[in-house]
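S.,

Sequence below, as promised.
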Amino acid sequence: MKLGILGGTFNPIHSGHLRVAEEIGEELGLKKVYIIPSGMPPHKKPHPLADFPHRLEMAILASKISPLLEVWDIEGKRPGLSYSIETLQLFHSYFGSNLELFFIIGTDAFIEIKTWKEYQNLFNFASFVVINRPGYYKEKFSQFLDSLNVGFRWDKKRKCFCHPSGNVLLEKDTTLMDISATRIREMVAKKKSIRFLVPEVIREYIEKVGLYIN
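The prediction came back faster than expected:
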């Protein structure tokens, strides 16, 4: 069973997130891409983070647009900070030994992975799909992978980095959508339109609930 994970604060979820999930899920032939809103992210400032139930509801509303997307609230159910290693372990516990898991992440977030809990163990639980971002070059990326000291080796035939566990690291390009959740929140606060940056159901939810006004 091939499944994908796209995690984040989703504060709010926007068209950039959704397009990445859709394209990678389709390209890799994934059965589902799970959108995982973080409960209490250890690397984000707590404000102005919308309450988890609001971020979860927006993710659920957005995911209904595509049959490929699914939302799981596992990080909101766990007490304390949300750690990716625990989420990956839970996926394997739930889906069993036939699971082939792909963790989707942007280059900008991936280069901070050394700050994550048990980062060297992450690659034992999932293949990583790193979405290329402007300003990050392949030569520097290869050097960064070497600095992780987890045993990645470039496979010319498969055109990917291979981990001793059998998992891989893929670099992928997706439709470039320069959309920022921070910018969306700022626009809402200034009472500016966010149409076409988020699905219409998300825009309506933000307006109805009154998120990001203050």
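The first helix runs from residue 15 to 28.

Coffee later?
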